[in-house]
Automatic annotation (TrEMBL), chains A, B, C, D:
Keywords: FAD, Flavoprotein, Oxidoreductase. Residues 139-235 form the Acyl-CoA oxidase/dehydrogenase middle domain. It comes from Marivita hallyeonensis. Homodimer. Pfam families: Acyl-CoA_dh_1, Acyl-CoA_dh_M, Acyl-CoA_dh_N. Residues 252-401 form the Acyl-CoA dehydrogenase/oxidase C-terminal domain. One of its GO terms (biological process) is fatty acid beta-oxidation using acyl-CoA dehydrogenase. Its cofactor is FAD. PANTHER family: ACYL-COA DEHYDROGENASE FAMILY MEMBER 11, MEDIUM-CHAIN SPECIFIC ACYL-COA DEHYDROGENASE, MITOCHONDRIAL-RELATED. Residues 8-135 form the Acyl-CoA dehydrogenase/oxidase N-terminal domain. The keyword Cell wall biogenesis/degradation does not apply. This is Acyl-CoA dehydrogenase. Belongs to the acyl-CoA dehydrogenase family.
Amino acid sequence: MDLGLTDRVQNLVAQVRSMVDTEIAPLDEEYHAEVGKHPSGDRFQLTDRQLDILAELKGKAKERGLWNFWLTDSDKGHGLSTVEYAYLAEEMGKVHLAAEIFNCSAPDTGNMEVLERYGEAWMKERWLTRLLDGEIRSAYVMTEPGVASSDAAQLAFEARKDGDDWVLNGEKYWISGAGDPRCALYILMACTAPDAAKHSRHTMFVMDADTSGIEVLRPMHVFGQDDAPHGHMHLRFTDVRVPSKNIVLGEGRGFEVAQGRLGPGRIHHCMRSIGLAEKALELLCKRGLHREAFGKPLVELGANYDIIANARMEIEQARLLCLKAAWMMDTQGTRAAQPWISQVKVVAPLMSLKVVDEAMQLFGGTGISQDTPLWRMWTHLRTLRFADGPDAVHRRQVARAELRKYTNQ
Amino acid sequence: MDLGLTDRVQNLVAQVRSMVDTEIAPLDEEYHAEVGKHPSGDRFQLTDRQLDILAELKGKAKERGLWNFWLTDSDKGHGLSTVEYAYLAEEMGKVHLAAEIFNCSAPDTGNMEVLERYGEAWMKERWLTRLLDGEIRSAYVMTEPGVASSDAAQLAFEARKDGDDWVLNGEKYWISGAGDPRCALYILMACTAPDAAKHSRHTMFVMDADTSGIEVLRPMHVFGQDDAPHGHMHLRFTDVRVPSKNIVLGEGRGFEVAQGRLGPGRIHHCMRSIGLAEKALELLCKRGLHREAFGKPLVELGANYDIIANARMEIEQARLLCLKAAWMMDTQGTRAAQPWISQVKVVAPLMSLKVVDEAMQLFGGTGISQDTPLWRMWTHLRTLRFADGPDAVHRRQVARAELRKYTNQ
Amino acid sequence: MDLGLTDRVQNLVAQVRSMVDTEIAPLDEEYHAEVGKHPSGDRFQLTDRQLDILAELKGKAKERGLWNFWLTDSDKGHGLSTVEYAYLAEEMGKVHLAAEIFNCSAPDTGNMEVLERYGEAWMKERWLTRLLDGEIRSAYVMTEPGVASSDAAQLAFEARKDGDDWVLNGEKYWISGAGDPRCALYILMACTAPDAAKHSRHTMFVMDADTSGIEVLRPMHVFGQDDAPHGHMHLRFTDVRVPSKNIVLGEGRGFEVAQGRLGPGRIHHCMRSIGLAEKALELLCKRGLHREAFGKPLVELGANYDIIANARMEIEQARLLCLKAAWMMDTQGTRAAQPWISQVKVVAPLMSLKVVDEAMQLFGGTGISQDTPLWRMWTHLRTLRFADGPDAVHRRQVARAELRKYTNQ
Amino acid sequence: MDLGLTDRVQNLVAQVRSMVDTEIAPLDEEYHAEVGKHPSGDRFQLTDRQLDILAELKGKAKERGLWNFWLTDSDKGHGLSTVEYAYLAEEMGKVHLAAEIFNCSAPDTGNMEVLERYGEAWMKERWLTRLLDGEIRSAYVMTEPGVASSDAAQLAFEARKDGDDWVLNGEKYWISGAGDPRCALYILMACTAPDAAKHSRHTMFVMDADTSGIEVLRPMHVFGQDDAPHGHMHLRFTDVRVPSKNIVLGEGRGFEVAQGRLGPGRIHHCMRSIGLAEKALELLCKRGLHREAFGKPLVELGANYDIIANARMEIEQARLLCLKAAWMMDTQGTRAAQPWISQVKVVAPLMSLKVVDEAMQLFGGTGISQDTPLWRMWTHLRTLRFADGPDAVHRRQVARAELRKYTNQ
């Protein structure tokens, strides 16, 4: 169980870290400051400066071969293992824009995997190539208002067959990335057989994002932020027609696609969240060493030594758990790795939230203000406790796996 | 130690609760939706509709005598005790706009207390009457960039004597309420004797908010929100002249005024935060009863029963602690009540944050979106863990009080 | 809601505290050191010295009128309210032997309540008088091996009618106090109608402890201790005959008696556990002030200030919750007070365990050794998390009470 | 960073696990039941049956080559790495007697390391061979009453030079294993130069346990248990003479020896505690599946799924952290591994205590009684939070290591 940095990845990590620190971080703030400055006033249009920043940074990354790392176990990318990718994802997690620059950002990576693994040739040609090149972006269209996402079998958005087409009607929301004007592809789960067995009711469709009949009702807000231009959109589909050939894998096999998609995605989120926690702990330590009260640096006051020690211990443990889950995926497949993926999906965001919260507390008011990135880290991490399954569902999975050891005997 | 609802307050609580539920809550959302709709585009200008809403609601409250409850132990208001006020504050905490409607909102209450307790006649005439009538608002100008607020003796904003005037120079930030165009009064702490003994360095000034030389640099953001039109402003003072008579209580007595001001304010914050927690628990229970997954209402899944029970147990305890701190203030004065005030200042916001966080988690994505008030509750409560002293400083106070039992013997 | 020390109780508290500190505590250690020194070698026989200590101390208490405080709302004792008794119980909790000295110890208090409330005249005459006088002791015989006590309806110990007698067969264990040779009375719950409705299956019997056919199988150990001479015995009943007149309240009404018995008992346990927590915090503070490491008193190292502050905050809250539960019992009866009793039954032992654990940690090895009373406090408190219902069952009660607010509407 | 089971260890783990389960566990209970049955009545004498059990089991282990695994990186034992040993230690942790059977128990392993690494030839001949053969046992004599062990520089037990001898005077306590009549060797730290620099004051001596002038004052109790016949003895040294040649490594180098000794020992304790946690979780799951209340198995009630999942997640993480610390020791030495050793020294006992506590709670009264091994696990684990440095000291070490990243730059 080698969980370490291999030589080839050590080198890539160094390059990525350096590019994140010296080239991406300085432009990240400018990129976000541009939001809302499009002449149209539309926060979901990218300004010329935003497009330039993206083009410049992505160009550099591609040129240096720092691109599509997430394509694990594949002949297309670096052929990295998930363990190897973990170390890179951690670095990319430290700055908001970084993952996209290396073409490693959600939801594109998951969507590319769907196309790569289950897509037909024409789908790959139409969308996968451009996604791999970072030319377009994509969205994954699953969550519905009015349905507890933890129990996906309840999803009710309807697709009815009509000749060789399917006609889609209903609402979907929290569609991350659907705000971005570059988003060209939707991968959408619809209920095609409401009376079928629980896991055969749904079908996965691919379609152009500008298919007629799709309307953006509003951006969903995350702690008051619209996350423009990426966005988490609330969409309404009215009689949207999609040809049958746009079905992925086959009618009624939506769950199978969804499951295959989620494993790696969950790991990637966790890896990045560990990077965030490291960043937050670094900020905390530096602030604590340089800020004084009562004649002492803050680190020497109150329980700050314990806070720092606890943070370090929890980060180390979460990272190791994440690496083990990645190693399980690499060596035994997503299905066997499931209990470990669930474990780390609970552990990593909770841990990161705690570390960021402690950093905010040590910074005082500054820690929740625009003067540090901590608040944005926190709100982003908070969404991870529901995204791809709430904690409660993952804990349930872990407990069941544990109990099976004694009931299957 | 009577911590219960007295008869007269039971009646007032019923009136306040009813007005909050049926009259204020419905307009609260509309009020906030108006932010940014002023013709000037300035988020810190109130729209006509906002002014109407305030006038209408405040008018009703005043007419019904639901006004200035916070004036405890005074012949001006209802003559309530702090314990009695606690029950009212809890109700007012449940909806954002409510406290202002009853003229019980921070920082005005604290500022009015300063004027009432330490102010000279001309100060009362100029500002206190209008504040008590709810005609103007005010700000408390203390926090400085670059100084750990936990150690207020470090505050360095400078006031130098020049003839009969004082000349103020420096920056202050997180000045809550200073964004509101109705804010007419600043109560400001400045360093007048940097070389004096630790608690004699500072002096408290009162002044008109539009005194020449004061510039708003920017609003401080709380988790990305500017909290307009109230705002938490970053101000720069350049050669601002204030006459000597504007000093409160006396030169070098700033700390004394600040201490007197803070006790009740901290209690009020805690009381309102308990109201928020009650509101969040109510939302959690209702959602958990009506939303289903895996064929059961959410409350019957996972650890939700325990989550609900723990929330109830922590709310009950925090409320009782708050009431005891209030009772200590009522019967033994702010100074003797200090350790209890510190206790509840730590306990109540932490408890409320936990309850709101659990509610967000049960709601899933909806819980952090604009579709519930939970996110706003959370970000507001998060600020209370620094405001009026960070947790660490209050824990230190509590520990010292405890140890004194054994060292003073 | 007066939760304070009334004048009359203030006086009693002072007397009890003084007697505990100066008269009981010094003999408590000697009493426990005598265990196992009976000439027979039997740890469950009291030595002459033990009997002397008890006689001397109980005599003094009785003479001073410090006796049977727990008889709340009664014309026999002091006529104290439960709130008033709470303050006394806290003091008695601080030293192991204290509660018995004032004739306020479990399980006698609960058993006396059963007799007082539901017993017939002959029962009172035969047992109650002597219990009230502290001449005999008693046991409450409910728990069974093989049955989860949390669901008392499962209790299966059998009583069959045979003529005018009932014949009892089965095992009972964790029968606290049944080791004591002075234990003269058993109050026992048996299943008399296994097919009846859930809460009508059981009947409560009273009987002499030396009734023929009862055998002590072994003492149950608590963390390796037999708690001699009190003991928690495992008993076997073989064809034990009890006359019908020994039934309390009526056939099939065992649950009713048990419920009536448990409310006050739970509160008393909690009150005493708060006394233990206070004692542990006192030990912690004194040790921390006087022991040094790295040139500083321990309190100034690590997170000790926070540990002390948190302990104080949790003790205060738990005490207030306990007082509120007591007040609910006093003013609205045991049934209405149930959710509060459940709350404090969860809160107080958990809190006390935490405080004692922190004290042990600060003391290092000494904290778990015979050189401090902390280990015995901890093991005793640990049993309270199951005794009279495990935490999980009480949390469930609290959650249900909460949800009823929304489902009964 | 290979943290996995290597092939050779996989095989050893299987053998050890099988021997623990089928041969040691059944005799472990009998061995402990024998305590106190020596004809002399002395609990610190081994009975014939105890000696037989040890001889039989140790004989089998030795014969099968399951012996002295802890000799990592050595040509004498299996030449295992610390990572490899970790997996074996985990198995040995599950049953109390197991570690001794494989000659892998504390404090012998640490003492053997001292002799192996720092001992002179005559010391090895006299003691090491017999220790490696499991013929004798040993004690490590460091802790003193009256001194906070966390700051070892304070240790004051005196050794004065007198001719070619040193004369030792003072008390030592918590000397684990010194109760065992087979204990033949003491490794003792004494203060030889009270005025020297902090880390040069102490010297390490080796001596026969029966050296004249050593008196056992009493066994220290752990939660009321004397842990006979192993014991944690309180010793008094009166004019005990030890020749100069008995000094290890050199005068004033006691700290160096102590530091070298502690690293691996701490890891071993943690490894075994993880085994205990696994055992406790197994007991919890089995009980929860087979015991019913309210018509359901306990696992389906309350928060038990979450409790199980949390236990699994924390065990996994602690194990990985332990393995990483072991790997650091293997690849970079004890000194470089120090922060990781400190981390796991805090994490593993806390985690194990939590899991055992949850298991006790689910078992109810049975969980703290003699009918399950849980209480003994708990009290044993509780000592680990002070042994070899209290949590607070290790957290301090971890925090300092973290802060050095920013202050050394």
